[in-house]
Write a structure and sequence with these properties.
four-stranded mixed beta sheet; binds nicotinamide-adenine-dinucleotide; binds magnesium ion
């Protein structure tokens, strides 16, 4: 029986994780959960799974809810979160908080040498230069949950001989605006941007999928997780989301991982750690299958150029890219900027910074703050 701490339990990834755990009760115990503010959802999870520990990040919020009466001993500050993650009874930490807010948890888990299942790609993008060497030093195993990266993880030979890889192909659905040129996207509504054709996910990542910034974050994530130069990583648009990514080896073989789009598939692979866990899934009907592939639209290339620069220069550039995107997406969701201005905010913020090395996690938090302030300034200048 493995004890799991699931951070981001009330979210979209959290829901898929709980489903896999529910289907494999004899192997896993939900030891702790963490969430932001959705106490109704948290209460449902507590009733079903009876976790030993509960971390509520926004505990200063409205305390009139029944949640605060029926549960005693709710953890709420950073030291308590760290204590939970570093509790020796914990076998697996799932990092599934959304956005940069998830970095602290990822850092605590890696620092403690825990096995960490990483959905929170923003941690890796913003702090790859700190987290990857730390994982090596602390012997922390990082297992990818993001469907593309878990696909790559499944395609890699056990000995993981990276010299045998010719290239990595990360697939992209293309999002809801795949067939539109950038100039047609001025004025698109939030609702249109939230209509993802193949995946149902949290709001932030859904907007990232519409701008293709999600694929940029994934390019950087793959670069760090697999230690592969960006020049060996190609993005290919595959609208059906059946092939989740591929590896071409130096002998000309390409291995792909396929499933119908469901996050339960990569999550069960990550949780299984080499063992295939049984889950309910919808089989691919190969007689119905019609797979297509196309390059990324040329007018979105500028955003991939930034991501590739992040991979090549590293240091503070990942945290700046990530922070500018988070501020831009939030402004779009709050209807403060146009959809296409997201690119403008990222590019202009990114150009305000030069590349510097980062040595500590605190420096990452500093650069994040600075980049957010700069991005807000760019937004003001757009009005
Ligand atoms: P979501 O918005 O549905 O859920 C976010 C979760 O994080 C919620 O439980 C929320 O309460 C919690 N949270 C937010 N702020 C918090 C804070 N400050 N402290 C503690 N908890 C906090 O998001 P999601 O779609 O589940 O995505 C989660 C992460 O997984 C993101 O990094 C995303 O990029 C990644 N991811 C998601 C998918 C997907 O299919 N949804 C796929 C791949 C990767
Ligand atoms: Mg993905």
């Amino acid at each position: 029986m493995k004890n799991i701490v699931l951070l981001g339990a009330t979210g979209s990834i959290g829901k898929s994780c709980l489903s896999v755990i529910r289907q494999n009760k004899e192997d896993f115990h939900l030891y702790g959960i963490g969430f932001g503010s959705n106490v109704d959802k948290a209460q449902e999870i507590i009733q079903e799974f009876n976790p030993n520990y509960i971390f509520a990040a926004q505990s200063q919020a409205d305390r009139s809810h029944n949640f605060w009466q029926v549960n005693s001993n709710i953890l709420s500050n950073e030291d308590e979160l760290q204590g939970l993650i570093q509790d020796p009874n914990v076998d697996i930490v799932i990092s599934a908080i959304s956005g940069f807010a998830g970095l602290k948890a990822s850092f605590f888990a890696i620092e403690a040498g825990r096995t960490i299942l990483i959905a929170n790609k923003e941690s890796i993008v913003a702090a790859g230069d700190i987290l990857m060497p730390l994982a090596k030093k602390k012997n922390a195993e990082i297992i990818p949950v993001d469907s593309e990266h878990n696909a790559l993880y499944q395609c890699l030979p056990l000995e993981k001989n990276l010299n045998e890889i010719s290239k990595i192909l990360i697939t992209a659905s293309g999002g809801p605006f795949r067939e539109d040129s950038l100039s047609d996207l001025r004025g698109v509504s939030l609702n249109d941007a939230l209509k993802h054709p193949t995946w149902s996910m949290g709001a932030k990542i859904t907007i990232d999928s519409a701008t293709l910034v999600n694929k940029c974050l994934e390019l950087i994530e793959a670069h760090y997780l697999f230690n592969i130069p960006e020049s060996q990583i190609e993005i290919v648009v595959h609208p059906q989301s059946i092939i989740h990514s591929m590896i071409t080896f130096i002998d000309g073989s390409t291995i792909a991982q396929m499933s119908n789009p469901s996050m339960e598939v990569p999550i069960s692979n990550a949780l299984g750690m080499g063992k295939r866990l049984p889950i309910n899934f919808k089989e691919i009907d190969f007689s119905e299958l019609n797979l297509s592939f196309e390059p990324v639209a040329h007018d979105r290339k500028m955003i991939f150029d930034i991501a590739r620069e992040v991979c090549n220069k590293k240091g503070n550039l990942g945290v700046i890219f990530n922070a500018s995107n988070e501020i831009a997406v939030e402004a779009f969701i709050n209807k403060n900027i146009d959809f296409v201005d997201i690119y403008e905010v990222i590019q202009r913020t990114f150009n305000c910074f030069s590349c510097s090395k980062v040595r500590t996690i605190d420096e990452i938090f500093e650069y994040d703050k600075e980049a957010r302030i700069q991005a807000e300034k760019v937004i003001k200048s757009l009005h």
